[in-house]
Amino acid sequence: MDRIRAPAVFFQRKKQKGMNSPSLSCNYEVKFKTIVIFIMQRKMGMTRRTFLMELARRKGFRVENELSDSVTHIVAENNSYLEVLDWLRGQAVSDSSRFEVLDISWFTACMEAGRPVDSETYHLMEQDRSAPLNTLESEVPSFIASNVSQYSCQRKTTLNNLNKKFTDAFEIMAENYEFKENEIFCLEFLRAASVLKFLPFPVTRMKDIQGLPCMGDRVRDVIEEIIEEGESSRAKEVLNDERYKSFKQFTSVFGVGVKTSEKWYRMGLRTLEEIKADKTLKLSKMQKAGFLYYEDLVSCVSKAEADAVTLLVKNTVCTFLPDALVTITGGFRRGKTIGHDIDFLITNPGPREDDELLHKVVDLWKKQGLLLYCDMIESTFVKEQLPSRRVDAMDNFQKCFAILKLYQPREDDSSYNTSKNFDFAEVKDWKAIRVDLVITPFEQYAYALLGWTGSRQFGRDLRRYATHEKKMILDNHALYDRRKRIFLKAGSEEEIFAHLGLDYVEPWERNA
User: Fold this and answer.
1) What residue ranges do the domains of the chain occupy?
2) Residue 240, CB half-sphere, CA atoms under 13 Å: how many?
3) Domain 451-509: which CATH class?
């Protein structure tokens, strides 16, 4: 069966535009006379370069159309330092040391600050700046694409994403397909994003992705356009699509998923303001809380806030079960410094268990005035039950989806308050924070920890790998060997990886 291709006209490049360098009619005041910028068009495209030059001039920077003796700073995007040297050699430049050769991130930082910023940390591949002009690109150590696994559980992916321009576009495309409930196309872009996040170098040409897994035609078309034009017209079209924009707004509300968004959209509703104004809609308790605390819940949770909530959760849990093990999971365990909620896994390694622990914790927070919302889901976990074959299946442990009130630090105190000990009636001195608590039996703790740590794509691939490569079934409860017909016990994440024949991947290397 032939692959479905988008109409060819959709991927026509914008090479017809501006074949000659445009002359800028506006004259702007030059505020920073010691800096003269030249922006390389190589791998950026004329349209983006023209926009950036105009932006810099409006901000008071002097920008040259051509490379001249007056240029002090060269800005490049998606080019290594060696590639810039090679380009300079083609311009008959024998001494590159007179230029500051900088990554586009320096330029962006200058535009955000409205002034020149320190360029020290923005050099392109700073470790190679001593390379002479005759250094060949082929001397850079080669990367063997065929060694890259299709499974992210066989790749170590940190938060250092060198291909964000591509992965951001992929994630927009994937989200749009998720809103359309097209799982195949959604996963195609998510898997491609996962591969590019792993790469130890920025992709600057189509040759760089040759031999990599998960690079289908749709993915390659987006990569090619970004390399040539600096952006994806497909991703831009999605961002401007009315349906996507509505679904994006709707699903940002706590308690609203794709099904509800579809229902509201079919009713002719397009914005959150229209939802709130429609008195005929019957919102669930969770959705009402989502709208009530919307501004707080859509804002990022910082590491400091996560640490404060961790202290609160641990203190409360240990009030009732002193030996309990309370572990923060999710993005914060993977090394992220911001998130949108905070997940905790709770277990008891000792002999004493408390089936009412979560209820006691919630009741105490109610008495302390810290609980803004709570949805308790009781456990349906059955020991020795076969793991679920569904990749994204929820587990059967007891859990609580809560919204807590976190009091903000006073100006004279950098620490967060876990109880109200001061009062400004007219000032909101707290922030609503989403907190998920999961109780797991100690025997299942390692499996639950692995599942709740994520990332989502890492977990998907881990389960896929277990099924297709090892004839096993893995979920948050257990690992079952279908050949031997036995459950494989594990006291740690390392043991689970060993059962699967995989090298252990640290939590901060699972950002797939």
Assistant:
1) 32-139, 145-238, 241-292, 301-443, 451-509
2) 6
3) alpha beta
Domain 145-238 and domain 241-292 have a common topology:
yes
CATH, range 301-443 = 3.30.460.10
Per CATH, the homologous superfamily of domain 32-139 is BRCT domain (3.40.50.10190)
401-412 confidence digits (pLDDT tens): 999 999 987 655
Count CB neighbours of 172 within 10 A: 21
Read out DSSP for 7-76? Answer: -GGGG--STTTTSSPPPP-------EEEEEEEE--TTT-HHHHHHHHHHHHHTTEEEESS--TT--EEEE
Residue 258: which region, alpha, beta or left (left: phi > 0; alpha: psi -120 to 50)?
A: alpha
Mean pLDDT (whole number) for 25-31: 75
- Please write the tens of the pLDDT for every residue from 260-279: 999 999 999 999 999 999 99
Residues 244 and 238: beta-carbon distance below 8 Å? yes
User: Whole-angstrom Cα distance, residue 428 to residue 164?
Assistant: 36
Say if residues 91 and 67 touch (Cβ distance below 8 Å): yes
Catalytic residues: 341, 343, 436
Average pLDDT, the chain: 87
The b/e string for 495-506 (b: 16+ C-beta within 10 A; e otherwise) is ebbebbebeebe
CATH superfamily label, 241-292: 5' to 3' exonuclease, C-terminal subdomain (1.10.150.20)
Residue 124 has pLDDT above 60, yes or no: yes
478-491 average pLDDT score = 96
> Cα(first)–Cα(last) distance of the chain, in Å?
31
Place of tokens 């996040």: 197
Say if residue 236's pLDDT is above 60.
Answer: yes
Quick one: tokens of 45? 């495209």
What tokens were used for 379? 């456990």
Q: How far apart are CA 191 and CA 265, in angstroms?
A: 29
| Model confidence band, residue 15 (pLDDT cutoffs 50, 70, 90) | very low
pLDDT tens across 301-352, in order?
A: 999 999 999 999 999 999 999 999 999 999 999 999 999 999 999 999 877 6
- What is the distance between the alpha carbons of residues 490 and 497, in angstroms, rounded to a whole number? 10
Q: Give the SS3 label for residue 479.
A: strand
Q: Dump pLDDT digits (tens) for 77-86.
A: 888 888 888 7
Q: What value does the mean pLDDT take over residues 201-213?
A: 92
pLDDT at position 26: 58
- CATH architecture observed for domain 145-238: Orthogonal Bundle (1.10)
